[in-house]
Amino acid sequence: MIAAIKEVYNFKLLNLYWSGDKLEEGINTKEKFAEYCLKNNITSLSMSTANYSKELVTYMKGKGLIVYVFTENDDKKAKEMLVSGVDVVGTDFLI
Length: 95
Fold this sequence. Notes:
Blueprint: H1 2-8, E1 15-17, H2 30-39, E2 44-48, H3 54-62, E3 66-70, H4 75-83, E4 88-89
């Protein structure tokens, strides 16, 4: 899929979804996921709040990736995520 996207347009930002335990065969750990992103010039990952962990965010940020988490509507939890290093927290409404 990434190759097809790059044939259409050379986007500066590319994002992959981190699905936790439902990762593709061959890309089934956070290490392999980050390695794939870096190898393919993917700049960010997004994940649901169910897949969020401070450890995962710290690891991915350490690899230079931008991290998005969605959907969090609790103001306190959203702020904790931002403090942990998450770059963008998606919400259903402004907090």
